[in-house]
Amino acid sequence: MLNIISNIILSFIIFTYGSPVLAAENPFSLIDQQIQQKKNQSGILVLDKGEDALIARAWLADHAVKSIEVQYFIWSTDNIGILASEALLSAAERGVKVRVIVDDLLIDAPDESLIALAMHPNIEIKIYNPKHSVGVSLFQRIKHIFTNFRSVNQRMHDKTFIVDGKVAITGGRNMADEYFDYNHNYNFRDRDALVIGKVVNDMNLSFNRFWASKLTETVEQRFKGTELLEKNINDKKVKQVYKELHAYAQSPKNFEVEVRYAINHVSSRFPELLKSVTWTDAQFISDVPGKNSETTSLGGGGLSTSALAAHINRAKKTIVIQSPYLVLSDEAKQLFIDARKRGVKIIISTNSLASTDNLQAFSGYRSQRDDIMDMGIEIYEYQPYPAIQKKLLERYPSIKNNHPVFAIHAKTMIIDSKTVYIGTYNLDPRSQNLNTEVGIIATDEKLAVSVEKMIRDDIGKGNSWHAKSKPDQHASFGKRIKVFFWQLFPLKPIL
Fold it and tell me: Which end of the chain, C or N, has fewer beta carbons within 10 A?
């Protein structure tokens, strides 16, 4: 069964495909009308399924008029990563100004392609804290690790996609197959929020802070003086890169016809989509570049940490959290201990050993799992093949024979069934002290209850195991040995 967002998208196609009036009308004008009517509020639409999140991003990129500003932690050169790059190139070719900030740690784009895109007159690309990959030799990488370990671990975990300064998406998804259900073997159960209106201004301000930061460098700066930039990348090579990107995106085997069709016709019933948006008071929380002013230790906190802690301190009845990684610092433990003393019920949905993609992080969780449960916190660990997978993955019928693992990547918190956070913050020391994080916080009971239900469905029978049931037994022997090995190391501050 399709969820409400998919139903809306399909209704666009079924009922008004080919409408000459609506096709000619700029759908963003309808957004402008809504923003004008709701001057002091923000519109929020939760994107709970990978295909919905993909369609929303692609449609926005296709309809951008002035600008696209993109900020991501991971941008892979897999199917989704290439399609996303082509969408930005196409926008730039029709005159849209495109600015991209990508963290340096896990970027895997070929240098030639990266330079070619950056050479487009309407595209600017910056790399955050380049100490690992872009323009960095193996010797330099090793040197950075041993001479400035803290700086090497300061990563930009932000994920924002802003179009024309008025519509944006933020949440857990990176630009890679597994975040949009396009991986045949391993996909993430993730969550984004599409936002409109007032709060987008704050997202713009955050993006511009990072753009102006000394921690970000242009691609041209990274390769300045190198033979690659000065000699190997000529006009012919640039045109060839663009041609290959466009050809890739036009191939039905790379971009499914049904998905492209849905993207092309979303605007046919755009007024219906706007009716599904929740207009409320919202806050965009974000860290400054570098996270904090600490220079020696691996601590220091941050603005996002303080904002989320303040909401936890105000909880009176319930705290429901979904986080792929669960490693509590001493400060986080105290927050939850204090909440439990106030009688607050705490439920956490996280990955099991069988589903997790990060054994190092799981090792930190396993070392303190019993202590967390002793605090009176209920923990549910996601199964690798949950029953809900068939509902959440639109493409499940085409990949089911591969038996794909489904794992949590959503970062969400609901306080007292009234306040909801959707963003990038993991419940671990790395998000607390090292990685810059962002997210949307809204106080709206209807919105909070609907998101809480999504998490409660995830922890239901057939989808999760209660941590007391010793779910590690369901993982392979190899995984159990490996996580035991990682438990021997003092990794907690960087998990």
Answer: N
What does the H/E/C string look like for 304-336? HHHHHHHHHHHCCCEEEEECCCECCCHHHHHHH
Token readout for 306 is: 């303080």
In three-state secondary structure terms, 495 is: coil
| The domain defined by 282-494 carries CATH number 3.30.870.10 | yes
Q: Which two tokens stand for residue 336?
A: 């939850």
Residues 38, 308, 210, 228, CA torsion sign: negative
For residue 485, give every residue at least 6 positions away whose Cβ sits within 8 Å of its Cβ, in sequence order, or none: none
Fold of 4-275: Endonuclease; Chain A (3.30.870)
According to the model, what pLDDT value does residue 10 have? 38
At residue 453, what is the residue type?
Answer: K
Please state the rounded mean pLDDT for residues 159-181.
96
DSSP state of 173: -
Q: What is the DSSP letter of 424?
A: S
Cα–Cα distance measured from residue 228 to residue 462, given in angstroms and rounded to the nearest whole number: 53
Kindly state the average pLDDT of the residues 171-182.
94
pLDDT digits over 265-301, tens only? 777 666 677 778 999 999 999 999 999 999 889 999 9
How many alpha carbons lie under 13 Å from residue 215 in its C-beta half-sphere?
A: 21
Instruction: Say what the pLDDT of residue 291 is.
Output: 97
What average pLDDT score do residues 72-93 get? 94
Q: How far is C-alpha 14 from the chain's CA centre?
A: 30
Within its chain, how far is the Cα of 292 from the centroid? Answer: 22
Residue 417 contacts residue 449 (beta carbons within 8 Å): yes
The pLDDT tens digits for 213-237 are 999 999 999 998 887 777 677 888 8
Of the pLDDT bands very low, low, confident and very high (cuts 50, 70, 90), residue 256 is confident
**CA–CA dist 357, 341 (Å, integer):** 34
**DSSP, res 208:** H
For residue 270, what pLDDT is reported?
67
